[in-house]
Design brief:
It is built from 19 helices and 14 strands. With 527 residues, the protein is an alpha/beta fold. It has 2 domains: 6-290, 3-Layer(aba) Sandwich (Rossmann fold); 343-494, Orthogonal Bundle (Isoleucyl-tRNA Synthetase, Domain 1). The strands form 4 sheets. A 6-stranded parallel β-sheet has the order 3-2-1-11-12-7, with helices on both faces. Strands 5-4-6-8 form a 4-stranded antiparallel β-sheet. Strands 9-10 form a two-stranded antiparallel ribbon. Helix 6 packs antiparallel against helix 7 (188-199). The model has no long low-confidence stretch (mean pLDDT 95). The structure holds 5'-O-[(L-methionyl)-sulphamoyl]adenosine. 5'-O-[(L-methionyl)-sulphamoyl]adenosine binds next to strand 1, helix 1, helix 8 and strand 11.
Length: 527
């Protein structure tokens, strides 16, 4: 069997001292959409997510509850795993940093860095942000009035004898990585941010801690534990067993996309590539840093009552269905360089405009007319000419647009390609008026051409929309009388225009029911 091209995609691994919420669901859903699309394209996809379980925050949260850190980790990792099931997410693995497979390999990789001289024992004094578990440079500390730019809490003066990673040695190579590969960080605004900071100069970074014990012991010096960020970043390598001798998983390396939120860009765009350079491992193709969800115009907070946590998401899914949730995430989320506002009213409007009035309506109109005028059997396209209308051409353009958008991680653009094709079908129906044509027995050829083309375009659009709304599209396919299976990896063939459905038996289908806006879960913002 010939091996198809690899496509490795990762989410950040999520901290177990927090419970899953819209932010985690969002990043993971984006990766899921891309993974589905690429599998459908026939690529050899590996989609990884997981949990980040070490560090002082987990140790403290567990202590506050009087439980062992591992117990807390087990409890919350299970919550995150529940998310995978809830959202129909197709990750190929779920890595937990407390698993022996990860711990063993992290030690091996760090040992390698010690041997190459990229890690050394040294002394350091500086400003430390306890909430973020990171040192802040003197300049940054001054700029933020010696307070954490994230939490606002005072920075503390810390002095440590630690193992350091020689980040400063990679300044030139990092800059050239950014220059030779302009798509290394996306979107562009994020790339410019990192590059600006990178050009400001790099300091070596401590990669061990001695002030707590909930971490992976440093190889050969067990008084130190490995800093949670090094431990965490290495998950992308340990899941693929890169520190094990031979593994079938090696073929997936490196990542096509490390998808993350903007707040952890520095770690992924600078520290991680430098670690990979030190380990002599190939670089990922792209670090994609999306922005943040806020909610009803304000930063999400538990006290404001606008926090979109799992129970809230479950209420949306109950009322609108899972695909509606996924659609809103992908189309209205912070994929670009600006934050996105989650609004109950906006959710309802998007659902109604896109899914009820466009996707649902177009599919039901087409199948209803096939039922009414052709007993549900798809007629052959008689080649009738409708000047100014070229649905086959429109479908080809939509597929090309979808492909380019998916390759660029412009998932909203890919949705546009699919739904845009359905809007064209709607306009074609309005212009050609099959309901009038049907009244004239002498115009059967014309009617057959209209409906054969509509149903073919609906079929192709459904292929393009499947990665985002898989549940409803899989319901639509049997109603169109077609047997599609994305796991066959034959998108190119199935998205090609033809007389594909000629003779197929269709039935009228309603995909997205109207929802009474009064039942939309509301955020109940505290006044
Ligand atoms: N454990 C680290 C990541 C290590 S990766 C090697 C971490 N975990 S986290 O639990 O805090 O998850 C952060 C990620 O959750 C963000 O990067 C983003 O993917 C997602 N989000 C958390 N809040 C978010 C929003 N409000 N909006 C969108 N996504 C955000 O950082």
């Amino acid at each position: 069997m010939t091996q198809s091209a690899p496509a490795y995609i990762t989410t950040p691994i999520y901290y177990v001292n927090d419970r899953p919420h819209i932010g985690h669901a969002y990043t993971t859903t984006l990766c899921d959409v891309w993974a589905r699309a690429m599998r459908f394209e026939g690529l050899d996809v590996f989609f990884l997510t997981g949990t980040d379980e070490h560090g002082v925050k987990v140790e403290k949260s567990a202590a506050a509850r009087g439980i062992a850190p591992q117990t807390l980790a087990d409890e919350n990792a299970a919550e995150f795993q529940k998310v995978m099931g809830m959202f129909n997410l197709t990750n190929d693995d779920f890595i937990r940093t407390t698993e022996p497979r990860h711990e063993r390999q992290v030690q091996a990789l760090v040992k390698r860095l010690l041997e190459t001289g990229d890690v050394y024992l040294g002394e350091f004094e500086g400003w430390y942000d306890e909430g973020q578990e990171e040192y802040v440079t003197e300049t940054k500390a001054k700029e933020s009035d010696f307070k954490s730019p994230i939490s606002g809490k005072p920075l503390v003066r810390a002095n440590e004898r630690n193992y350091y990673f020689k980040l400063s040695a990679y300044q030139d190579r990092l800059e050239s990585l950014f220059e030779t590969n302009p798509g290394f960080v996306k979107p562009d605004a994020r790339r410019n941010e990192v590059l600006g900071r990178l050009r400001g100069g790099l300091q070596d970074v401590p990669i061990t801690r001695t002030n707590f014990s909930w971490g992976i012991p440093f190889p050969g010096d067990e008084e130190h534990v490995i800093y949670v960020w090094i431990d965490a970043l290495l998950n992308y390598a340990t899941a693929l067993e890169l520190a094990e001798d031979a593994s079938d998983r090696h073929r997936h390396w490196p990542a096509a996309y490390h998808v993350i939120g903007k707040e952890i860009l520095w770690f992924h765009a600078v520290i991680w590539p430098a670690v990979l350079m030190a380990l002599e491992l190939p670089q990922p193709a792209c670090v994609y840093a999306h922005s943040f969800w806020i909610s009803e115009g304000q930063k999400m907070s538990k006290s404001l009552g606008n926090f979109i946590d799992l129970p809230t998401i479950e209420r949306y899914v109950d009322v609108y269905g899972l695909d509606a949730w996924r659609w809103y995430m992908v189309n209205n989320g912070p994929l670009g360089a600006t934050d996105a506002d989650f609004q109950a009213a906006g959710f309802h409007e998007t659902y109604t405009t896109d899914l009820v009035n466009t996707v649902g309506n177009c599919a039901s109109r087409t199948t209803a007319m096939l039922g009414k005028y052709f007993d549900g059997i798809v007629p052959a396209d008689t080649g009738f000419d409708f000047p100014g209308w070229d649905l086959a051409g429109a479908a080809g353009t939509a597929v090309a647009k979808w492909r380019a958008a998916m390759a660029d991680f412009a998932l909203d653009g890919a949705c546009d390609a699919g739904i845009g094709l359905l809007r064209t079908v709607d306009a074609f129906i309005n212009a050609t008026e099959p309901f009038k044509v049907a009244k004239d027995e002498n115009r059967r050829d014309e009617l057959a051409s209209i409906l054969a083309r509509c149903v073919e375009a609906v079929r192709i659009a459904s292929v393009l929309l499947w990665p985002v709304i898989p549940g409803r599209m899989e319901t639509l396919w049997p109603a169109l009388g077609c047997d599609l299976d994305p796991s066959r990896g034959d998108l190119e063939a199935v998205a090609a225009w033809g007389d594909t459905l000629k003779g197929a038996t269709t039935r009228k289908i309603a995909l997205f029911p109207r929802v009474d806006p009064a039942t939309t879960p509301s955020a109940d913002i505290a006044s």
